[in-house]
Amino acid sequence: MLEVLPKIAKLQASYALGKPLALPMNLTISVSYRCNSRCKTCNVWQRPNDDFTIEEYDKTFASVGRAAYWFTFSGGEPTLRKDLPEMVESAYRHCRPGIINIPTNGIQDKIIPARIERVLQAAPTSDVIVNLSL
User: In this predicted structure, what is the pLDDT of residue 79?
Assistant: First the structure.
């Protein structure tokens, strides 16, 4: 985590100067607009769903390289993707994020633990955070 500190100064300078001096620290990937909740404050589930394939994500992560330290796999509900662990494995192989964040509504309580266990195996040296949105 200490390796992030010098990057913060570059990001602040980038903002002040109005030009990029450092790559972003955080990358948010919306893996799907599908959602099994119908929150009154969100309509993401009403959007058309045209999910990337694993191959498309693999190409994307290969092009990103080791730029961002923190990856968030968001959505919709990211755990609805059966291939979420494969997606994380691709990001880990190409980008080696220090932190992987996965927000979830937790509705699929029978499926989520096994899926997250596979995510942990796919990214053995990353810190994995699972946010439970209530």
Answer: 96
Q: Considering Cα of 128, then 52, then 35, then 47, what sign does the dihedral take?
A: positive
Q: What CA–CA distance (Å, rounded) separates 58 from 88?
A: 10
**pLDDT in the model for residue 49:** 79
Provide the residue ranges of all domains of the chain, joining segments of one domain with +.
Answer: 25-32+51-134
Encode pLDDT of 56-92 as tens digits: 999 999 999 888 899 999 989 999 999 999 999 999 9
- Rounded to whole angstroms, how far apart are CA atoms 67 and 111? 31
Non-local (6+) Cβ contacts of 44 within 8 A are 33, 35, 75, 76
Tokens of 98: 């220090």
